[in-house]
Here is the input.
Amino acid sequence: MDITPIHLIDDDRHVRESLCLSLRAEGFLVLEYSHPSEFIARMDSGTQGCVLTDLMMPDIDGVQLLEQVREDGSEIPFIFMTGHSDHPAISSLIEQGLSVLEKPFRREQLLEAVIRAHSQ
Here is the structure.
């Protein structure tokens, strides 16, 4: 069992529940947040694991969250999920070496991205 957490941030409760079930079934520790501000409030310089976040959310989107986390000095790996393959930030995120999963994605794609993030 991997005890390094996955910080799952998505404003859609059903998506969070589904992803939590899948990832926990694989032995991952998943911490859920319904809004990026919840994660930011709990994050500190010692926060470990990876962030699995929706790219499009109200108020703070995934890119803004990444920018804020980086400004705070954290290099925690990010995995983005999106249902909008035409989002202008996707190319830049991929160029930065970040994982972007297009919804709907296969469980294997998710697991590969999480394992890759945990090995960084």
Observations:
- The mean pLDDT is 91.
- The helical segments are 13-25, 36-42, 62-71, 90-95, 107-118.
